[in-house]
Amino acid sequence: MRLHEVSSWRELDDAICEASRPRGTGHAHSPLVFRGLARSTYSHVSSLSRLRGDYAALEPHLVRNFRKYACRATPGETVWDWLALGRHHGLPTRLLDWTFSPLVALHFATASWPEDDGALLAVDCERAHRLLPGPLRAELDREGALVFSTEMLARAAHDLEEFGRLGGDRPFLAFFEPPSLDERVVNQSSVLSATSSPAYQVQEWLAAHPELWRGWLVPARIKSEIRERLDQAGITERVLLPGLDGLAAWLRRYYTPGEVDRGAGEDDGSTMAGGSGRQEEGWMGA
Questions:
Q1: Are 34 and 122 in contact, with CB atoms under 8 Å apart?
Q2: How far apart, in whole angstroms, are the C-alpha atoms of residue 101 and residue 109?
Q3: Is-above-0.85 flag for pTM?
Q4: Using CA atoms in the order 40, 46, 47, 51, what is the torsion angle rounded to 10 degrees?
Q5: Torsion sign, CA atoms 109, 112, 113, 115
Q6: Residue-range definition of the domain harbouring residue 266
Q7: Spatial separation of the C-alpha atoms in residues 184 and 256, rounded to whole Å
Q8: Rounded (10°) CA dihedral 239, 90, 74, 180
Q9: How many domains would you assign to the chain?
Q10: Whole-number Å distance between alpha carbons of 77 and 224
Q11: Which residues of the chain have pLDDT under 50?
Q12: CB neighbourhood size of 234 (10 A)
């Protein structure tokens, strides 16, 4: 993956501001969604794919049984609500976590693995959505929206099989906002991506569309500088992960002199997912 190496917080901040500037797309705000990785070597593959074997065939069983046994939880009526809820609590899904906030993404790129380079990615979801199949594109146009809601996705595709069929033989990637399940989702400005097939990975989409995203390498030597800026701005575990798990994670990092968490328990280093507060993919978690 092509990543531009930055040498300081200032250079990175300027690069993010330049990339985020609206460019006559019809939206008043930045069309970018961000993803932070604690290690630049981590891949953009789903938690579902990490089950290995014929993982794609397991998806309907995971979703069906999650809905069955979590029936007292009522996130909404659509499969997209249940997928978001499952992802929130660590269920293996095809979804990946993103955020509208570059600072939130940078938190998860710098809060762990101090000795390793991190990475920040930004995808132009407005341009990415121009590539969507007609029914999905029409739903966005009808609402004048930048990303989908779960209800919008459900109107275009009632279930995951129908969602995949919309593109025919062409794989695609869609971004949607999860319902506000709790403070973590709200505070992290959470966005989720859904691939058209459980076997199709975001990193494949990134490789096929290099013009639609930007990436910055965050060298280990400047992680502490960025971390200090984020802490001063209140972008900490205590805010992004409300509750005792987040408080404990913040205190552990704060009182470890000259270090940040080494990321014990991470799978690929990009997200904080699940009610347990464990770091799963290295950055956030809807």
A1: yes
A2: 13
A3: yes
A4: -110
A5: positive
A6: 4-282
A7: 24
A8: 30
A9: 1
A10: 44
A11: 264-286
A12: 10
Among 40, 10, 161, 187, which residue's Cα sits nearest to residue 99? 187
* Other beta carbons less than 10 A from residue 186's beta carbon: 11
For residue 210, give the DSSP letter: G
> How is residue 139 written in tokens?
């739903």
Max Cα-Cα span within the chain: 54
Instruction: State pLDDT tens for residues 254-279.
Output: 888 665 555 543 444 444 433 333 34
Q: Locate 174 and state its tokens.
A: 């869609």
Detail the DSSP E strand segments found in the chain.
4-5, 32-37, 96-99, 118-124, 173-176, 190-195, 213-218, 271-272, 279-282
Phi, psi of 178 (to 5 degrees): -70, 160
Assign 3-class secondary structure to 223-249: HHHHHHHHHHCCCCHHHHCCCHHHHHH
